[in-house]
Amino acid sequence: MIPDIALLSEENRRMNDVHTPVFFRLSDTTQKKNFLALIESSKVWLSDEISDQLKELIKSRNPSAGYTAKDFPGLIEQHLNGCPPEEYGVWVYYPWSGRLVHLLDEDEFVELRTSANRNKITMAERNVLAAKKVGVIGLSVGQSVSVTLALERGCGELRLADFDTLELNNLNRIRTGVHNLGLLKAYSVAREIAEIDPFFKVVCYTEGINENNISHFLDHGGRLDMVIDECDSVDIKILCRIKARELHIPVLMEASDRGTFDVERFDLHPDRPIMHGWLEHLQLDFEVLKNLKTNEEKVPYMLPISGLETLSTRMRASMVELRSTITTWPQLATAVTLGGALAADTCRRIFLDQFTGSGRYFIDLETLIPDTRPRESYVPVGPRPRLNLAEIDAVSAKAAAILSSAVPISTQLVETLVAAAIKAPSAGNAQPWKWHYSHGYLFLFHEDTGIISFGDPGGCASQLALGAALENLELTAGQNGFNTHTQFFPLAGHDQLVAAVSFTPAAGDHMPANYADLADFIDARVTNRNPGTREPILPEMVASLSDAVSSVAGAGLILKTSPDDIHQFAGIFGQSERLKLLNPASHYEFFEKELRWTDQEAGQANDGISIRSLAISGQEEILLKMVRNPEAAKLLAEWKAGRALEFTARKYIATSSAIALITMPGYTALDFLNGGKAAQRMWLTAAKNKIGLQPVMSPLLYWRRHHTSAVLDLPDFVLQELKELDARFAQLFPAVGGQGFVFLCRLTTGPKPAAGSLRRPLQDVLSFA
């Protein structure tokens, strides 16, 4: 018959609150009576090795005596001095295991157990340490710290604070047995220490630390001499430092990654800012801190504490996977064990006045014991040499010689036209243009500015930008009373010459373009990456956008407005963005060439994309900073992971009112130039109607590259995913004949961004013969 397992389990669970041993000294009549009753009433596992302990004690006290085995019986009898061996010392009963162990009593036990510490810890130093009290908050790394301190007897009292219980996934780093699952971590550690040293004082705070008990934790029964913070809660990390500083108690923290170790000597410098001053710009009022609920609210505090820029590669990659493929940040037993050693060693040296520093330190084993094999790393392809004025002038003169004569226009008008032209959008805000006025023509050159290369297969992204710039120029010329005539190149022997524009005065007030009033919205046009409201675009506005596109010869517009279609595209775009960030070439271009991380950096460069313009949350910015490290991205690619990188793209697409695709007859350079004109005309029309627009080009650029021979640098799994995405995209946007898909964007209703991207000064992009 199977016993009642639930009942037995519940009976055993009652033992979970027991964490202190019971002492029996048999010279005491009552204790001897209780000892005998225990043996008679319970099944105990009795261990009596007192004779060996006495032998080792005698030997340790007389290291030079050279005793042999035959000497010890007499020496032990002399030491017992008439006391029966079974009554000497103390019997220690561990109720949770049923073990009853015969030991030397406290003074002799401590003397013998720590005898191998000498002379790394002298007897005088041992006595100093015995008077010290240490509080440990958080018992994952804290378990290793606490046990190491107890093993070394680096203090005389430990106060252990943790509200959590042991779970199976803790056992990768917490040294305990599976029989302790469900046991409070504080009691587990207290039991382990008691089984090493039953005389060591341990006080447990099983509710953890909070604002109501922290003063008791720090000061009750004597002020702590050290706080070791290994908890996860941001508010408690900060609170314990605030209170420790008030009481002049130093604080240590080990982070289990790269041996990151913090020391804050509030005992020596009570005015020292907490966390090395990294939080001084934040509000440190606990009433505010305890109410931090969301990651968005916690992130500003977590970043300086974690040391984002100094995390290991694997930790960076793993942080991207939080709540995706893992539930918490990873910790290894090796790191936790090292952390225990670091904290215990530093604690001892502080107590013995052998270390007075504060700061953040690293005991990074991968750096100290490195793998010296050469690593493969991505080597970016350098940009084409910048165009110089002599070369531009020579090519312009050669082009002018084969063109008919043109009517000159004023320098002021040229500057007005080009100032409008360069407000056009470009992939990565690369601004791939150079303008030169010569022989009555305004020549447009394609200049590789080095921001995008992999993301500009065949120059298609640049051609779109140059077409948009020509659209701005032509609209502005019309607004100033001039018709334009554009001759497209390239010129034999110089493929960077794109077009030559000539000008003729328009008759009266005639505007040469059907959309001439769009020139008024050139300044208003910006990339709107803000979330939308999902509000449908009115039919008359849809018609105006479609008409704007179709007014460019060969251009057509496909709009997807149903929630299901937008949802489908959100998945496609999110996956495409993840692949872009995990590919070495596109990763390098986005993080090292395109993205501007600070306002100062953006202002100095006047190109690229400011991170502030991405309209992402603080948590999403951290995600980008995690994956910025190319080795972290490489790991995510190897793991075929990084799905969290899709979240932002999916989220913003899902708030769109429509997805718009501009088509052209094919994929020639002229198709992309005219596609750029059509895209800009639609974008200006959208600005006129207060509709937001954001290009979402990574699917087109990736698949364009996928369909060419330039796929050798893509891993097999990326190629496979691209094929799958291609099929899904074809279902959403089926191609007709040789139709070329040249421009893809989302349309939104909602708030307008605060500002657009910066532009290089006019004098950097315009020259005169």
Structure description:
- The mean pLDDT is 91.
- The protein has 769 residues and is an alpha/beta fold.
- The longest helix has 20 residues, at 460-479.
- 41% of the residues are buried.
- Strands 7-6-5-8-9-10-11 form a 7-stranded mixed beta sheet, with helices on both faces. The protein has a 5-stranded mixed beta sheet with strand order 14-15-13-12-22, sandwiched between helices. The protein has a 4-stranded mixed beta sheet with strand order 1-3-4-2.
- It has 4 domains: 5-113, no CATH class; 121-368, NAD(P)-binding Rossmann-like Domain (Rossmann fold, 3-Layer(aba) Sandwich), CATH 3.40.50.720; 389-519, 3-Layer(aba) Sandwich (NADH Oxidase); 539-748, NADH Oxidase.
- The chain is built from 29 helices and 22 strands.
**In what range is the share of β-strand residues?**
5-15%
Number of strands: 22
Shape: elongated
As residue ranges, the low-confidence spans are none
Distance between the termini: 103 Å
CATH topology of the largest domain: Rossmann fold
What would CATH call the architecture of the largest domain? 3-Layer(aba) Sandwich
Fraction of residues in helices? 40-55%
How many helices? 29
Strand count, sense and barrel status of the largest sheet are: 7 strands, mixed
Please give the order of strands in the largest beta sheet. Answer: 7-6-5-8-9-10-11
Query: CATH superfamily membership of the largest domain, which one?
Result: NAD(P)-binding Rossmann-like Domain
- Structural class by secondary-structure content: alpha/beta
In the CATH scheme, the class of the largest domain would be: Alpha Beta
Nearest-angstrom radius of gyration?
37 Å
Number of domains: 4
Average the pLDDT over all residues and give the rounded result.
91
